[in-house]
Structure formats: C-alpha cells, structure tokens
Amino acid sequence: MATECCITIEIPPPKVKRVSLVKYRGIEVGFKIGKGYSLGELKEAGVNCKIAKQLNIPIDPRRKSVYKENVENLKRFLEQVKELVNAKKAKPARIFIATATQQ
C-alpha cells in the first residue's frame, strides 16, 4: 500500500498526571499517556462528543481534569482537519491515533 496516495493526520495522545505514590512521599512523578480526553477538554476545545466519535478522538468519560496542553493539542488537530475540509484539491486523508510510548 502506497503512503504517498493520502495525507495522514495524527491524533495527539492525551497526557495525564501520574498517581503520586506513598513510597515517593507524594512527590509528583510526572505525566503519562492517558486513555482519552476528558469531557471538559473536549468542551474547551469546542468539540462535542458526537463529532469526537466521528473523528475517532479517544474519550475518557471518567476523567474530570482539564489540562491546557491537551486542549491546545485538540485545537491544533481540529485546525488541520478544517484545512483539509476547506481545501479544494486535496488527497484523501487518513486519521489515526498515535501510539506513543510512555515516558
């Protein structure tokens, strides 16, 4: 299958805070890749659940936190999609979910 035939757009993976463990005395260990974006992050980015499901954006309804970095990533992704929709002559697009390793 030729990759030159279509444009690929990557959905950025959501970042969430790691759980602070007692053995580290509650010190924040950093961020990890989450299962999906929270409903608050989708709302701030201007996306409803129906459109998010159509665009294959992962949603985690149990999360309540909202991180600015995730909202900015969603806005950038939506701008890329809008550019493709508004383009008159565009190659077929393929949207895929990024499978990044945990850091």
Walkthrough of the structure:
There is one protein chain. It is built from three helices and four strands; from the N terminus they run βββαααβ. It has helices at residues 39-45, 49-54, 68-86; strands at 7-11, 15-17, 31-33, 93-97. The protein has a two-stranded parallel sheet. A two-stranded antiparallel ribbon has the order 2-3.
List the SSEs and their pairings.
Blueprint: E1 7-11, E2 15-17, E3 31-33, H1 39-45, H2 49-54, H3 68-86, E4 93-97
Parallel strand pairs: 1-4
Antiparallel strand pairs: 2-3
Helix content: 25-40%
Secondary-structure element order, N to C = EEEHHHE
Largest sheet: 2 strands, parallel
Number of helical segments with 4 or more residues: 3
How would you classify the helix and strand content by structural class?
A: alpha+beta
Distance between the termini: 31 Å
Q: From the alpha-carbon coordinates, what is the Rg to the nearest angstrom?
A: 16 Å
Strand order of the largest sheet: 1-4
General shape = elongated
Strand percentage lies at 15-25%
User: How many separate domains?
Assistant: 1
Which spans of ≥5 residues are poorly predicted at pLDDT below 50? none
Number of beta strands = 4
Mean pLDDT: 80
List keywords for this structure.
single chain, 103 residues, alpha+beta, two-stranded parallel ribbon, 3 helices, 31% helix
Summarize the structure.
The protein is of the alpha+beta class and 103 residues long.
